[in-house]
Amino acid sequence: KTFEGDRGQSTWRDLTLTGKTVSFKKPIALDLGGIAKGYAVDRAIEVFGERVDSVVNAGGDLRMNPWIQKNAAIRVPQPDFAISLECPMQRPALATSASYFHEGMNPIFCPYSKESIMDTFSVSVFADTCMLADALTKIAFVAPLAKEIMHEMEAEAIVVDDQGSMIPFEKYARNR
Fold first, then answer.
1. Does residue 80 have a pLDDT over 50?
2. N-to-C CA span, the chain
3. How far is CA 83 from CA 79, 161, 172, in A?
């Protein structure tokens, strides 16, 4: 459905889920493309059960059981080489979004301008489920209120630039 007006006025709070029904209080842009992969990772980790030390990695979506005191590798967003930074797991699941496999064109679009976000950063999110972590990486790229949403969802974000430096998420989110 196409909506007129109110661009940039909607937040995730304008979305209502009732059973299997989604409704909107205002016009809102949604991208559910990568969430299915996160969901598949979550289901796969359940196959092993709670007593098995397991890791499921589906190229940017990762979940561990157990996850405390373990590390994960986050790729530096540079298309010409594969360097990773080791980072302690902060939650059971980790998802990363970046444009390094998309020839400079990020597949994440700003819902306000409808243009590709041309950052040379990657955004990685730690959350309780991989599906949630994947969804939150997109929000971290575009939402001015991403820090508030991360806090409410009990998630943590890490931003890595193309030089391999970690940028505090609060600083990155402020510049959105």
1. yes
2. 27
3. 10, 12, 21
